[in-house]
Design a protein that fits this description.
This protein is mostly beta strands. It contains no helices and eleven strands. The N and C termini lie far apart (39 Å).
Length: 120
């Protein structure tokens, strides 16, 4: 029900920084949870960070202290600021929208993904 388009991926050296963005086709003001996932070759998709409507954020242990998720509801955009990047951060990064409140059962919405490659 909401289209998500990621941007900002690319090639960066270890220790560098990158910010990826997720632009939504409609208002995200009322979407309970927005998130970033990533999937490396041969591995399962994993949660990187999520943020609630109120701004409460959670992070995977592997990225705590290095990544910051934020949402700008006025721009219908979710960001993931990635600092101190490591080669193991290399993956396709996907934006996710969970529109569910208690009692609803909408499937999650996913973007097409943006490639982040960390290499010298």
């Amino acid at each position: 029900q909401v289209q998500l388009v990621e941007s900002g991926g690319g090639l960066v050296q270890p220790g560098g920084s990158l910010r990826v963005a997720c632009a939504a086709s409609r208002s995200i003001f009322s979407i309970p949870t927005m998130g970033w996932y990533r999937q490396a070759p041969g591995k399962q998709r994993e949660l990187v960070a999520s943020i609630t409507r109120s701004g409460s954020a959670t992070y995977a242990d592997s990225v705590k202290g290095r990544f910051t998720i934020s949402r700008d509801n006025t721009k219908n955009t979710v960001y993931l600021q990635m600092n101190s990047l490591k080669p193991e951060d290399t993956a396709v990064y996907y934006c996710n929208a969970n529109r569910n409140y208690p009692g609803t059962y909408y499937p999650p919405d996913w973007g097409q993904g943006t490639q982040v490659t960390v290499s010298s």
